[in-house]
Design a protein that fits this description.
The complex is a heterodimer. By secondary structure, chain A is α/β, with parallel strands linked by helices. Chain A has 12 helices and 14 strands. The relative contact order of chain B is 0.16. Classes of the chains: A alpha/beta, B alpha/beta. Chains A and B meet through helix 3, helix 4 and helix 5 of A and strand 2, helix 5 and helix 6 of B. Bound molecules: thiamine diphosphate and magnesium ion.
Chain lengths: 325, 339
């Protein structure tokens, strides 16, 4: 049996699955308990698990992540919500300096099984301080695992994998995906981190996408079909660990690559993929390795501008056509 | 946790005398260790930087003796004293200072990041204020698990002006966490006097009321005082009474770090604080109260012997293997980020 649910409801369902299974899982954040989250993605958790395990915090991002870190090193498996991923900048010391480095600096004495959940990216006309896709920030830090699901089923499976993982994971939920729906099977769902999925097979070009760029890449592939171009779409699902094998195997068959990233251009994750493919598949290539990204600008608020600058289906189609010229 | 070893000579001491001997043992060991660390730094054997607690030993001693073996210590880069005070073996600490494989962190931490989880030394943090919220987390976990453990978090006067200090105190109070915050007010940040950049006279204590906490200022150079205030605050935390914030007034004998001569400090201020040196003063007090000098001499001889042995062990230890740099990024022991 399967059920059609939203990405938003999948978050609550994934958290509930793990809170039910493991009493050491605790969930904290701003407005997450009584209010059910500003995106209503955590509705019902307080009612089922009570105020000790699902807990509202003050607006203190450092205190939230500090609490998660100290608890993780002493026996809990905390999940901490940072309401918008842009706010990671206010607790960047915890994200970039404390949490990822402590296991290493103590030579393995300290384990940090914790998850930072955060609403990432644009599409909701919130303006530059509530819209940036910052997955590349997290990816650049040794010691963090980075996950970004594209659909409700993966939200549950990857969230479960992130919570059960013994290392710190930053879990990016793309906020424009919250109302989108997808089929979710009954029963427990648990995935493995670092496994990409080929969501659409194809022969002529490999399109690698993440989170909200996946449905756009799929729509582009459908359009390309009509133009006689067979595109393979890979949903990366995780940036760390990175499933380079799936990408490389695909490019070896198609001999062309387009990456579709929501993050701003410079040092986006696509650059890393392009560099790996350039080094390891060079002799298989028949076209330029091409990146479609948001330009290197803060994201503007106006719907007209936001739609212009986030990678669109038509920009993906054009990029794929160009690498096939 | 008393570190006093019961011997022929100390068997007949009262329990209060045992405690005070434990405190003396702590300050003497930390003093001997820090003096050696300074010498090894000047010899070029301790690389990078190091921040000593010379003159500030009584704070670590008081808490070290008052804490339960499974309580948690969170401290700063000025953390040799607190790490040793929890019973971490000197050889492992010295090995870490010298960047050897025998160090408590295998040479990957260094002087500023001493950690020994098995002794409750949960890390030395070198970003100002970072560890106050983290100590809250350990206290929260203890509260959830009902373990009765307490987290104690040490930091400097300069740390009271960073946001994390304020966020942590508020959350600790709101969640009624079993945590004790201890401000080691040595009057200076690195080179700037705390009074020059702080809105209130007592950087920690004057902020306490903003978080519903009692304002506590104590003589951080008096081991008896530190033991008492530590015991009270830890008991309060353990019994569900919530957090405390303690401001302990103290002074470092040397500079902030490395070879800093501390010349920004007025001579008369330095001279005045040197008369309040916790080690000789405590020794004199114990003698005046009737403790046998030979017992104190034994403690001193043992401390110096331990420092000598730790130094020899660290000098003889090999450097870390190059491969170790790739270990322990992840829980699987490795550092792989792709397949
Ligand atoms: C966030 C941050 N800012 C600045 C520094 C540089 N720094 C290291 S120690 C120090 C002084 C801290 O003073 P205090 O808190 O009084 O501690 P003390 O060294 O006196 O024990 C400074 C500014 C730092 N490590 N972290
Ligand atoms: Mg200071």
């Amino acid at each position: 049996m399967a059920e059609l649910i939203t990405y938003r409801d999948a978050v609550a369902r994934g958290l509930a699955q793990e809170l039910r299974r493991d009493p050491t899982v605790h969930f904290i954040g701003e407005d997450v308990a009584a209010a059910g989250g500003v995106f209503k993605a955590t509705k019902g958790l307080l009612e089922e698990f009570g105020p000790e395990r699902v807990r509202d915090t003050p607006i203190s991002e450092e205190a939230i992540l500090g609490a998660a870190m100290g608890a993780a090193m002493t026996g809990l498996r905390p999940v901490a919500e940072i309401m918008f991923s842009d706010f990671l900048a206010t607790c960047w010391d915890l994200v970039a300096v404390e949490i990822p480095k402590t296991r290493y600096m103590t030579d393995g004495q300290v384990s940090l099984p914790l998850v930072i959940r955060t609403a990432n990216g644009g599409g909701l006309r919130f303006g530059a301080q509530h819209s940036q896709a910052v997955e590349n920030w997290a990816m650049s830090i040794p010691g963090l695992k980075v996950v970004a699901p594209s659909n409700p089923r993966d939200v549950i499976g990857l969230l479960a994998a992130a919570i059960r993982d013994p290392d710190p994971v930053v879990f990016f939920e793309q906020k424009s995906l919250y109302p989108t729906k997808g089929e979710v099977p009954d029963g427990e769902i648990i995935d493995e981190l670092g496994v990409a999925s080929t969501v659409r097979p194809g022969r002529d070009v490999t399109i690698v996408a993440l989170a909200s760029m996946v449905p756009r890449a799929v729509a582009a592939a459908e359009e390309l079909d009509g133009l006689g171009i067979s595109a393979e779409v890979i949903d990366l699902r995780c940036l760390v660990p990175l499933d380079t094998t799936t990408v490389i195997e695909s490019v070896k068959r198609t001999s062309r690559l387009v990456t579709v990233e929501e993050n701003p251009r410079l040092c986006g994750w696509g650059a890393e993929i392009v560099s790996i493919v350039g080094e390891e598949c060079f002799w298989h290539l028949d076209g330029p390795l091409t990146r479609v990204t948001t330009p290197h600008i803060p994201l503007p608020s106006s719907d007209a501008l936001e739609d212009e600058f986030l990678p669109s289906v038509s920009r993906i189609v054009e990029a794929a056509q160009k690498v096939l010229l | 946790m008393s570190t006093t070893q019961i011997t022929e000579a100390t068997r007949d001491l009262s329990s209060e005398e045992q405690t005070r001997l434990g405190l003396y043992r702590q300050v003497v060991r930390i003093r001997a260790f820090e003096e050696r660390a300074y010498r090894l730094f000047m010899e070029g054997l301790v690389k990078g930087t190091s921040h000593l607690s010379l003159g500030m030993e009584a704070i670590a001693a008081g808490f070290g003796e008052a804490m339960r073996a499974d309580d948690y210590t969170f401290c700063t880069y000025r953390g040799h004293a607190h790490t040793l005070a929890r019973g971490t073996p000197m050889a492992g600490v010295m090995g870490e200072l010298l960047g050897r494989a025998s160090g408590v962190c295998g040479g990957k931490g260094g002087s500023m990041h001493l950690t020994s989880v098995e002794h409750g030394a949960m890390g030395s943090y070198a970003i100002i204020g970072a560890h106050l919220p983290i100590a809250n987390g350990a206290a929260w976990s203890a509260q959830v698990r009902g373990s009765g453990q307490v987290a104690v978090c040490f930091f400097g006067d300069g740390t009271t002006n960073i946001g994390a200090f304020h966020e942590a105190l508020n959350l600790a109070k709101v969640w009624n966490l079993p945590v004790v915050f201890v401000c080691e007010n040595n009057l200076y940040m690195e080179y700037t006097a705390i009074g020059d950049v702080t809105a209130v006279e007592h950087p920690a204590a004057d902020r306490a009321s903003a978080y519903g906490l009692e304002s506590i200022i104590v003589d951080g150079n008096d081991p008896d005082v530190m033991y008492e205030v530590a015991t009270t605050a830890i008991e309060r935390a353990r019994s569900g009474g919530g957090p405390s914030l303690i401001e302990a007034k103290t002074y470092r004998h040397g500079g902030h770090s490395r070879a800093d001569p501390g010349e920004y400090r007025p001579d008369d201020e330095v001279a005045e604080w040197l008369t309040r040196d916790p080690v000789p003063n405590y020794r004199a007090r114990l003698l005046a109260d009737g403790l046998d000098e030979t017992i104190l001499e034994d403690v001193e001889a043992q401390a110096h012997a331990d420092v000598d042995a730790a130094t020899e062990a660290a000098r003889a230890a090999p450097p870390p293997q190059v491969q170790a740099a790739y270990n322990n990024v992840w829980a699987d022991g490795g550092s792989s980020w792709r397949n």
